[in-house]
Amino acid sequence: MSTNSPNLGRRGLIAGGTGAILAGMLAAAPGANAAVPAQRQGNAKMPLAFGPDGKFRVVQFNDTQDGPRTDRRTVEFMGKVLDAEKPGFALINGDVINGSPKTAEEVRQSINNVVQPMESRGIKWAVTFGNHDEDSMANGTGMTEAKMLEFVRGYQHNVNVRPEKGVDGSSNAQLLIRSASGNKPAFGIWLLDSGRYAPENLGGQDFEGLMGYDWIRPSQIQWYREASEAAERQHGKIPSLMFFHIPLFEHHHMWFGSQFSSDDADHAAAVTKHSIVGVKNESVYTGAFNSGLFSALQERGDVRGVFVGHDHINTYSGNYFGIELGYGPGTGFGTYGLGGAKEHHLRGARVFELDERKEQVYTATRTVFAKELGIDMDPKSQPLDEPLPLP
């Protein structure tokens, strides 16, 4: 698809006999129904570790965004990616579920469907939250992000951490990856909670004419800066990747090579300047305000790349003044895609390669698409017969 494809606009959610077979396979996989351990296992500060060869792989899924009968192809695709890539860590970077669950049990089922591909394979994993994860609250489920976080932390292989007091958001975390050659970190992964929606008004003014989404808050930037400085004092500067759901203003600026326009004529020069690869098929739906996070990352100099989701049919990445900015393509088959016969053709995941023997450690990223792995591309919904068994 051309990088100059016209914007398709943001669409509403798609509602959402072979699913039973898939459910049975996953239920039978090691650890799929393991009891919740009495205590969390592993090193809380360094829950991840490079392999003996000094390498480590990360898989980013995004916008799995479905209900208690998740489209079976979402689960199938995630499993195929994990089997092929064998990552040391995988995450679902926001909009884990949609607003369709009617009960707390259905929220847990919706989450469980899309974390079982990692959990059943014994792969360390985490989630960040997006704007849709609390939407079921309108149905009376009572499942706040805090309650969802408590639920996912009960899984044996989950590495999410408890929220920091006084810091906005539930899914903020610094995860350190231990070196293969000793008890010290060689790389880091930052997770941030980019919030949900802008408030109805602020300072007596509404948000009409602005993007309607939330933004990274000052308390989070302060937490990142202080945690980054503390880690540097202890271990030296730790190169890292950062993940959260809603893109930054700079994701827009990089694509167009300008701040105050969205002129495709400027994009060609930006491709060369910022080494942009991938496609943009819808607008960059940022938060209402520019949080200033990018400036803080430039100041600290430890984050090598910032990757988001939210805009399901954008897949691009590039180097924006020394920091790689990019999207993970939308993973879930139960939410909007390209439309028409090609509805599911950009369902995918993003893979990151780390090698601690290399100076920069972070060496490459690439996308993997469901259509490349033999997943059925029929536009029609294919829900599971029943939710996967809860652990």
UniProtKB/TrEMBL annotation:
Keywords: Signal. Residues 1-34 form the signal peptide. InterPro entries: Calcineurin-like_PHP, Metallo-depent_PP-like, TAT_signal. GO terms for molecular function: hydrolase activity, acting on ester bonds. SUPFAM superfamilies: Metallo-dependent phosphatases. It comes from Crystallibacter crystallopoietes. This is Calcineurin-like phosphoesterase. PANTHER family: PHOSPHATASE DCR2-RELATED, PHOSPHATASE DCR2-RELATED-RELATED. GO terms for cellular component: cytoplasm. The lineage of its organism: Bacteria, Bacillati, Actinomycetota, Actinomycetes, Micrococcales. It comes from the Bacteria. Residues 56-313 form the Calcineurin-like phosphoesterase domain. Gene3D superfamilies: 3.60.21.10.
